[in-house]
């Protein structure tokens, strides 16, 4: 009996599985309420233009039109800097930006209304990359930057296109290069791309007669929306209710608040009626925020025997037209600006740049896969200069307990996993010793490439997660957490943690999938691989309270001291005499004596967790303690390249990741595999293609192609388990990490194969052909 | 979401379909024939296709059939790409069709729709061009059979009210050595940078190409150069490439110069496969 109720590490089937495999799961757009109006967007065909005139007169001639929004100075919004009009006013700054909104009785009438709007634009010069944006004479996107309201600890530079600058100053960079015998410098770049979640974003807003604003939205941050409505419109958080059903893939793209604000304005314009705004695929790709781009230069110094001494880095993140989440993404990029190595002297300027590209949201990995592509490619360039095996170089410099991070956090074995072991296992799995390059018949070569990864999650220091447990008359437990089920299975893992702690059948735990901010306790945001850690700690706290209450109640009935009692297997029993027991179902709803006397009522408990000791980072040096632990890992790839036509096939992709403790094996493998698949597509195929005018030429799945089933390589995944002592059962974050090294590993692989240093993503055959034959774009 | 309403009719005979077309025409309604419906759905929602009325041809007897009749393989214009792939009576066509779009779409896309549609790759036409097929064209008076080369020049040219009812392929082409190669920007999904379909007939190579120009083509000049057996394959291909029938595409899939690089390699591969190592 005991073993059956051990759930940690078991591949428990997801609590949302049946709903999803039967197609019965309900996403935001599946909620159809009578009386709901529908909004449709007119989006900008230009990346940068003045709106000279806008004419709605034809729209109003269509029967069924309820409101038209646009050409109005709405309150500015933005996550850290209020720099964006929710609907453009007088000027557009990216292709796809909302220009007007039509609200109508049906979606079709709304779309016809949009088609009847006449706008004339005056095109403006376009800033088409962060490096262009950084030039002295670059056109400015936000001339009025100084007038924008902003949060603390954001460092924009007025009269430039710099929305934020984070500095990392560790050690003494001059000294670092003096101690170095070999220097490698490398520059990389890639454009923004998309998340391509299956469910396009959708938001419904209504304003009740008492002023309460009710949202239903496909969001990773329903609780953040409550706080932002206060900052944007002065509405008290208690007056905002946000409901989030299960979400059909998010990947960070649904961490931004965008459609909610437009739906709110549309509801306001129609007397508070519910208004639904549902993105088309094209809008979801370019109108809503995207995956950030990056231009970067990394300069590394090392001794002749390969000890890293100095890293001097410039990151220019392509935040797009509005700063929104890009400010924080660039901050996260600064925090882990190097790879996972011991480097005593680090100098990094990490800029969040304004460009005329769609603006950025979070993307799985939050700046890390981007930064690691730059850093880990440079590590291979350095290895070549040193004539050293690239994995040996990494092993030699691997970060260890006792070392410090770029923000000078002193690590111990709880806060950082075992990177040397990950590298060692990767080498064995990849048969690295058999050589990196293998010539095959017919002009084909097989080549291996690898890199290392790490990531911490930089949450707000006061970020919190809460859980409520209520008991049912059958002794089963309802679990309510503010974690949004975005496909990661976190709520199933929470049920496992609860079942393990309470020694109860997992089928006796009912997880509430829908988040409703009025009745479900806050989980700060469902981002950054932190659901299991924070909500898991909250579950344990609540479970401990439930156990205490059950024991207190049972003590008088069993006539034994509470401390002699145990809870498990559906009972409260006396530890040294289990025959004295009482069923939880007879306790959890109050205990009724034979004569009808009843003591106690339904047991309702709660738990809460906030990560202790987190600090802001210093604006001048970056010094600070921004994240609780670092998940580390080593990743690799084996590719078969046709040297004649530059096509290639990824045969195998490897991940060895120290996730502290495997809580649900299949779920963990699924997370890592899914992340690797995204990373492969990001490295090998996915990008927005911009023309000279900053317009996205492929905002459709016809021409923008994520990895399709059947194109994937063989995935080889292994876990190392070095516990994070603060986390439930020692588990580390693992939702994003499979992605982080894929672009760099692919770049390293193909660079070795071709004998050139590849510096752009995605690594399509045309790029390989160009660089190998020195054909310029 | 298609932002316009349209009338829908599903006639049971060719005559009825053509009559319906002219009736809509008289009423000044923009009508089009409709087969798989994928373009109406995907382009209609972007306002790139408009119709007041659509005439669904799938109710017409034998419009979706695939069968042999006397000397011919007959493929109805309404046969879906999936049906053609699975019937596999003409392996060159089956292979070429199986690389178009994705399975879900191929279950709907018909061969008539693919070769007459707006999306210019129209790869299903490549095997038809090199097998000199006949097109059975429906008009008011019934079906008229025309060689494909009379109807096709960069695209299918039909008169108003006509549609392709059937495709007749001489049986001898069905078993000839063939090659069909699709090369994409990356991996196995997406439009072609280059699609090449070729057969060897009486020791001569015939080849048709899609993806390189904004239309599919078969060029006799190119074939002449490719069949200069005395010369090295690379030289034959380079000569052939001088006869491009139009400007080479440069778009999100790839640049013109890269497309030419890919085309050259693909042609060399195709010849290699049809002639074997020794080039005979």
TrEMBL record, chain B:
Single Gene Ontology MF annotation: FAD binding
Domain FAD-binding PCMH-type: 1-174
UniProtKB keywords: FAD, Flavoprotein, Oxidoreductase
Organism for this UniProt entry: Peribacillus glennii
Pfam family, one: FAD_binding_5
Record has Ribonucleoprotein as a keyword: no
Tagged with keyword Oxidoreductase: yes
InterPro entries for the chain: CO_DH_flav_C (IPR005107), CO_DH_flav_C_dom_sf (IPR036683), Diverse_Substr_Oxidored (IPR051312), FAD-bd_PCMH (IPR016166), FAD-bd_PCMH-like_sf (IPR036318), FAD-bd_PCMH_sub1 (IPR016167), FAD-bd_PCMH_sub2 (IPR016169), Mopterin_DH_FAD-bd (IPR002346)
Superkingdom as given in the UniProt entry: Bacteria
Name of the featured protein: Xanthine dehydrogenase
């Amino acid at each position: 009996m005991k073993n059956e109720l051990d759930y940690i590490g078991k591949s428990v089937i997801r609590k949302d599985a049946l709903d999803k495999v039967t197609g019965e799961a309900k996403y935001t757009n599946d909620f159809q309420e009578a009386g709901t109006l529908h909004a449709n967007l007119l989006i900008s065909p230009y990346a940068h233009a003045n709106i000279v005139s806008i004419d709605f007169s034809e729209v109003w001639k269509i029967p069924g039109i309820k409101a038209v929004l646009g050409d109005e100075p709405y309150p500015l919004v933005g996550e850290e800097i209020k720099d964006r009009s929710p609907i453009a006013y007088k000027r557009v700054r990216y292709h796809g930006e909302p220009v007007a909104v039509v609200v109508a009785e049906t979606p079709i009438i709304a779309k016809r209304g949009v088609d009847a709007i006449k706008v004339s634009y005056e095109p403006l010069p376009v800033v088409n990359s962060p490096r262009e944006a950084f030039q002295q004479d670059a056109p400015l996107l936000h001339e009025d930057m100084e007038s924008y309201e902003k949060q603390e600890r954001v460092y924009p530079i007025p009269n430039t296109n710099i929305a934020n600058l984070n500095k990392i100053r560790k050690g003494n960079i001059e000294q670092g290069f003096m101690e170095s015998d070999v220097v490698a410098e490398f520059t990389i770049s890639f454009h923004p791309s998309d998340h391509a979640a299956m469910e396009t974003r959708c938001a419904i807003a209504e304003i009740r007669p008492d002023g309460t604003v009710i949202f239903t939205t496909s969001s990773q941050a329903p609780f953040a929306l409550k706080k932002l409505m206060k900052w944007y419109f002065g509405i008290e958080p208690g007056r905002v209710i946000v409901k989030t059903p299960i979400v059909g893939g998010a990947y960070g793209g649904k961490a931004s608040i965008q459609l909610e604000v437009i739906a709110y304005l549309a509801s306001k314009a129609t007397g508070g009626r519910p208004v639904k705004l549902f993105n088309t695929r094209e809008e979801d790709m370019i109108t809503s925020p995207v995956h950030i781009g990056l231009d970067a230069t990394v300069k590394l110094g090392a001794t002749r025997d390969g000890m890293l001494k100095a890293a001097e880095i410039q990151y220019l993140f392509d935040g797009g037209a509005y700063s929104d989440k890009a400010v924080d993404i660039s901050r996260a990029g600064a925090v882990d600006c190097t790879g996972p190595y011991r480097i005593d002297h680090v100098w990094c300027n990490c800029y969040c740049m304004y460009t005329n590209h769609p603006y950025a949201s979070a993307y799985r990995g939050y700046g890390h896969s981007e930064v690691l592509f730059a850093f880990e490619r440079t590590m291979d360039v350095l290895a070549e200069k040193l004539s050293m095996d690239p994995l040996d170089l990494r092993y030699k410099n691997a970060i260890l307990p006792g070392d410090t991070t770029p923000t000078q956090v002193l690590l111990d074995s709880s806060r950082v996993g075992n990177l040397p072991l990950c590298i060692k296992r990767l080498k064995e799995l990849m048969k690295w010793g058999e050589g990196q390059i293998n010539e095959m018949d017919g002009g084909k070569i097989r080549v291996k490439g690898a890199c290392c990864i790490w990531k911490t999650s930089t949450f707000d220091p006061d970020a919190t997660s809460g859980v409520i447990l209520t008991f049912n008359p059958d002794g089963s437990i309802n679990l309510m957490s503010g974690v949004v089920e975005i496909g990661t299975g976190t709520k199933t893992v929470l049920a496992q943690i609860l079942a393990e702690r309470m020694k109860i059948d997992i089928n006796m735990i009912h997880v509430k999938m829908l988040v409703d901010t009025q009745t479900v306790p806050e989980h700060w945001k469902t981002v950054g691989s932190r659901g299991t850690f924070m909500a898991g700690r909250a579950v344990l706290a609540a479970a401990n309270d439930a156990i205490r209450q059950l024991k207190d109640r049972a003590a008088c009935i069993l006539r034994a001291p509470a401390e002699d009692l145990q809870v498990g297997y559906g009972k409260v029993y006396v530890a040294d005499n289990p025959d004295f027991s009482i069923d939880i179902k007879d306790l959890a709803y109050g205990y009724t004596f034979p004569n009808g006397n009843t003591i106690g009522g339904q047991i309702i408990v709660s738990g809460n967790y906030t990560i202790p000791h987190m600090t802001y980072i210093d604006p001048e040096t970056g010094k600070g303690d921004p994240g609780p632990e670092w998940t580390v890992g080593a990743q690799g790839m084996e590719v078969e390249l046709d040297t004649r036509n530059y096509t290639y096939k990824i045969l195998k992709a490897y991940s060895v990741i120290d996730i502290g403790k495997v809580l649900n094996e299949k779920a963990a493998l699924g997370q890592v595999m899914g992340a690797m698949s995204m990373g492969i597509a990001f490295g090998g195929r996915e990008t927005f293609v911009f023309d000279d005018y900053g317009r996205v030429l492929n905002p459709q799945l016809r021409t923008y192609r994520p990895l399709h089933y059947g194109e994937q390589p063989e995935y080889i995944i292994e876990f190392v388990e070095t516990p994070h002592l603060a986390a439930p059962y020692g588990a580390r974050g693992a939702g994003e990490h499979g992605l982080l090294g894929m672009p760099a590993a692919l770049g390293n692989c193909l660079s070795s194969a071709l004998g050139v240093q590849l510096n752009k993503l995605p690594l399509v055959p045309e790029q390989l052909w160009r660089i190998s034959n020195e054909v310029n774009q | 979401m298609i932002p316009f309403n349209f009338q829908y009719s599903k006639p049971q005979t060719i005559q009825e379909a053509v009559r319906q077309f002219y009736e809509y025409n008289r009423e000044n309604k923009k009508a089009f024939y409709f087969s798989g419906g994928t373009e109406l759905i995907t382009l209609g929602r972007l306002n790139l296709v408009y119709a007041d009325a659509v005439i669904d041809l799938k109710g017409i007897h034998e419009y979706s059939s695939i069968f042999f009749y006397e000397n011919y393989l007959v493929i109805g214009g309404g046969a879906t790409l999936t049906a053609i792939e699975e019937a596999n009576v003409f392996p060159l066509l089956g292979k070429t069709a199986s690389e178009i779009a994705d399975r879900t779409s191929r279950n709907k896309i018909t061969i008539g729709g693919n070769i007459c549609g707006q999306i210019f790759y129209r790869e299903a036409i490549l095997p038809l061009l090199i097998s000199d097929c006949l097109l059975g064209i429906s008009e008011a008076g019934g079906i008229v059979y025309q060689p494909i080369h009379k109807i096709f020049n960069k695209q299918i040219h039909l008169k108003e009210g006509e549609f392709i009812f059937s495709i007749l392929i001489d049986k001898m082409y069905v078993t000839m050595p063939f090659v069909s190669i699709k090369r994409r920007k990356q991996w196995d999904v997406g439009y072609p940078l280059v699609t090449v379909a070729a057969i060897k007939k009486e020791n001569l190579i015939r080849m048709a190409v899609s993806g390189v120009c904004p239309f599919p083509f078969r060029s006799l000049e190119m074939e002449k150069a490719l069949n200069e057996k005395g010369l090295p394959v690379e030289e034959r291909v380079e000569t052939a490439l001088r006869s491009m029938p139009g400007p080479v595409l440069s778009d999100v899939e790839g640049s013109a110069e890269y497309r030419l690089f890919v085309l050259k390699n693909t042609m060399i591969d195709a010849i290699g496969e049809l002639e074997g190592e020794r080039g005979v």
